[in-house]
Amino acid sequence: MFLECIRGDITEAKILAAANSFLPLGLKDLGYEYDDCRSLISHVNGRIAPDTTKFPSGISGVTTQVHILCLKLSIYSDAGTNTCSGYLGSLN
């Protein structure tokens, strides 16, 4: 599922609500993915830090819940200084 269109307002709750809607709507087999806006705007200890406010279970917790539904989860980053939504890229 591509949530980039909501520009940075992605949260664990929104991803899980969308994932849980796939099965009753018959969308499971279409191969949607999730990406971007999962990290904080700044580094912690030289590393991109997860946003624990938006993702209280962490990415691993969200991944586990999405995988229980037999859906895919994709993590997006950027080789440059910023992602498309303005979050820190891997170059930093």
From TrEMBL:
EC number: 3.2.1.22
Enzyme class: hydrolase
Hydrolase among keywords: yes
Pfam families linked: Melibiase_2
Keywords: Glycosidase, Hydrolase
Catalytic activity, reaction form: Hydrolysis of terminal, non-reducing alpha-D-galactose residues in alpha-D-galactosides, including galactose oligosaccharides, galactomannans and galactolipids
GO molecular function: alpha-galactosidase activity
Keyword Chloroplast: no
SUPFAM superfamilies: (Trans)glycosidases
Biological processes, Gene Ontology terms: carbohydrate metabolic process
Family per record: Belongs to the glycosyl hydrolase 27 family.
Name under which the protein is recorded: alpha-galactosidase
